[in-house]
Amino acid sequence: MIRKAVLSDLDNIMEIIKETIKEMHSYNNYQWDDNYPKSKDFANDIEKGDLYVEDMNGQVCGFICVNYLEPDEYNGLNWSVNEKAMVIHRMAVDSRFRKKGIGTSLMKFAEELAINNGSKYLKTDTYSLNTKMNTLFKKLEFKLIGEMSFLGKEKPFYCYDKLLSISK
């Protein structure tokens, strides 16, 4: 079940982050590290009501942040449409729960959340070396619209968007 995250979820979220960073670094993806993301980033997301978790019997097994905040680096990119979009940030799935459709479920949730909030458009980005997220975005029919320099990283971040169909 996907629900809004609460502060008591932070320990589980940070454990997922720790494992995800270790895994990312194993294939030379340094998108996340000791400096980002931190517990305060998630506490802020929770405070604003932007962080959601996949909860299986009281166990947080994944999370996603969705809001309207666009990094300044998005300016000047050739987005599909010029309208307000919801933006997906900080998403991960506990390694013990991978290959069970949780990442897809969280992304589909973000699509429904956008539609339910009157937005028919999603934007997101990920590090070019983050093969798992890049594969997920493509699988879910997000369109690669360009790349940007971000967070002082050596390689570019790929930017994606998706127009959502609102069923009647």
Automatic annotation (TrEMBL):
The keyword tRNA-binding does not apply. Residues 1-168 form the N-acetyltransferase domain. Keywords: Transferase. Gene3D superfamilies: 3.40.630.30. The keyword Transferase applies. This is GNAT family N-acetyltransferase. It comes from Tepidibacter hydrothermalis.
